Amino acid sequence: MKHLLSAENLDRDTATALLDTADHLKRTLLGREVRKLPTLRGRTVLTVFYENSTRTRVSFEVAGKWMSADVVNVSATGSSVGKGESLRDTALTLSAAGADCVILRHPASGAAHRLATWLDGTPTAVVNAGDGTHEHPTQALLDAATLRERLGSLAGRRVAIVGDVLHSRVARSNVRLLATLGAEVTLVAPPTLLPAGVERWPVAGISHDLDAELPGLDAVMLLRVQAERMHGGFFPSAREYSIAYGMNETRLRRLPEHAVVLHPGPMLRGMEISSSVADSPRSAITEQVRNGVHVRMAVLYHLLAGEEHAE
C-alpha cells in the first residue's frame, strides 16, 4: 500500500489487515506505563491541515509519536501557504525536506489524490485526512474498528447513517468500507441533505423516516450538520431537524438492546444527539476517538514499515 486516499481503494483483505493490526497494537500497548514502540524510529511524519481539526490531527500526532516517528505539524496559517504558495509547491517542499508521510486535510475534494500524483516517483506516502466533501478513509476505518469491537463480525450487520449525507466525507467513506466488509448500510436523511446520484451508492436502502428504521438496526451513525458548507435553507430549523432526525432517549429505546450509537464528532448536542444518549453506555463515541489512535498507528505501520518489520 503506497498511499491511503479513499475507502474505495481498500479491498476486504487490506481493510481487515489494517483493522487486525490496529487491534494487535491496542492489545500490545494495553497496561503499558510507557506507550512507546520503536517501529517507526527515524521516520518523519508531517500533518498538513488546511482545515480545523481536533480528533484527526491529535490522533495522527499521538499515533506517530507512540511509534517513535518524528511528527511535525504544518498549518496553512503558519506556513508559506499564507504567502500564496500552491499546494503542489508545498508538497514538493515537504517531500524534499525528508517527509516519509504527508497527512493532508484540505477543503478541496480530490486534493489528496492530486498531492499523491505530484509526489509520484518520490518515497513520500500520502494519507487523506479529509478532502472537502469527498472522503475520510481513516475515520471509516476507526468506525469499523469500533463496530467490530462492539458487534463482532460486520457481515450482515445493519447500520444506519443519519443526517447531513450531502456534505459528509465521513458518510461516503463509511458507505464504501462497510459495504466492503459485508454490512448493510441504510442512509437516513431529509431529501435536501442527500447528494445527487446517491441511489448508485452501495447501500441497502435510502429512507427519510428514522423511527421506521430503528427496530432493525445494529448501529446508528449520526452525522454532524455542516452548517459551514451550507448556503441556503436545507431544513426549516434546528428544532425541526432534531425532532425528525435527532437521537434521543425515546429513539434509543426503540433500538435493539445490543445496538450501538456512533458519531464522528464534533457533536451538536441537543440537535443531532441528546446528552443523555451521547453519554450513555450504548454510545461508543469515546471509543471511536480511542480506536482512532490505534487505527492511525496501523495505517502508518502499513505505509512506512510493512512486512519488513512484521513479526
Could you walk me through the main structural features you see in this protein, from its secondary elements to its overall organization?
The strands form two sheets. The chain has a five-stranded parallel β-sheet with strand order 7-6-5-8-9, with helices on one face. The two termini are 18 Å apart. The protein has eleven helices and nine strands. It has two domains: 7-135 and 289-309, Aspartate/ornithine carbamoyltransferase (Rossmann fold, 3-Layer(aba) Sandwich); 137-284, Rossmann fold, CATH 3.40.50. The longest helix is centred in the last third of the chain and has 20 residues, at 285-304. The chain is α/β, with parallel strands linked by helices. Helix 1 crosses helix 5 (137-151), helix 1 (12-29) packs across helix 11 (285-304) and helix 2 crosses helix 11.
Low-pLDDT ranges: 307-311
Structural class: alpha/beta
Q: Kindly state the number of beta strands.
A: 9
Could you tell me the radius of gyration in angstroms?
19 Å
CATH architecture of the largest domain: 3-Layer(aba) Sandwich
Separation of termini? 18 Å
Mean pLDDT: 92
Question: Order of SSEs, N→C?
Answer: HEHEHEHEHEHEEHEHHEHH
What is the CATH topology of the largest domain?
Answer: Rossmann fold
Shape: globular
Total separate domains: 2
CATH uppermost class of the largest domain: Alpha Beta
Protein name: Aspartate carbamoyltransferase
Binding site for carbamoyl phosphate: 55-56, 105, 136, 139, 265-266
GO cellular component, one term: cytosol
Binding site for L-aspartate: 83, 169, 224
